[in-house]
Amino acid sequence: MSDRGNTVHYLHGYAEILAEVSATGRRLTRDEIESRRALGEQAADAGHGLRALISEHLTAARTVWPQTNAPADTALAAVQQVIDAFAEGYERAQRHAVRQEEAARREFIDDLLYGRSDLGRLAERAVRFGLRLSHAHAVAVAEGPAVYDEGDAVPRQVERALIGRFGDRDILLTTKNGRLLCIAPGHQDDVLAYFAKQAYAATDGGRVAIGRPQPGPGGVVQSYEEALNALELAERLGLDDPVLRAADLLVYPVLTRDRQAMADLVLDALGPLRTARGGAQVLLDTLTAYFECGCVAAEAARRLTLSVRALTYRLERIHKLTGANPADPAHRYMLQTAVIGARLLDWPARDI
Fold it and tell me: Among positive and negative, which fits the CA dihedral 214, 218, 224, 228?
């Protein structure tokens, strides 16, 4: 904190104003008030503390007051006007600085997540926000029933929990497109796991996806895109897991890399189910439940609220229509892959 010798500039003209106003009983003029506001802005821009500056105003008032012989009410009213104007200017400068910082932070985050800036320059800017982009980073993305902005209660709640547990620790918490984002060093998986736990609770049962750690300045956007893809896959596949890891879902992008080949497999393996009474969807749901519970008929029947006999009948019907037996290991992989492909391609609801 600066000493009085460095802040005396911000009291320029104060003694003269106080002496004249106290002597005459008039209020401060518009120009006098604006001059105090301007000095308050300058003090804030220079980084001086408001508390110390107000204390110096009060000390100066005690020096001038005995020389004015003014009534206490008159002198105190003048001091109040001066300090109010000075504090208003100070706070105005602070709000402006906050808005500038928020704009710079948002611009940085947009560039970081979309890769729109020179990577070298991006790495330099990242240091200001606590990130060292030369290291590997991973991104967790949380979505809930509502959209979130940085100033909302949910992001603040999650941020307080993270800072309380880990400190700043090179963590960047933000929002993007209504979702919560946490960017952390790639080796600090405990940070992202804790973020997932807090975000799940704060969003009232939302879903969180965690991308893989990726190196270098472009690693953040790669991990971010992996997390977004994991959320999209979860929606398309109807996955119930509250926390998804992109590393555990890598098989799905592989399966859909050749979309036409996957479409051919779905139609060849499952196309005959469309001739069943009621269409293909009921039998497709039966296969999905059967495979998800490890091909245990009793568990699959429970999930579908069927008797085991009814489930067995459906599996036999599938075998008859497709020529592939879900209970036969030789056929199972092909059928299960086709079922996954159908869910990814939204078949039979959509033509492929």
Answer: negative
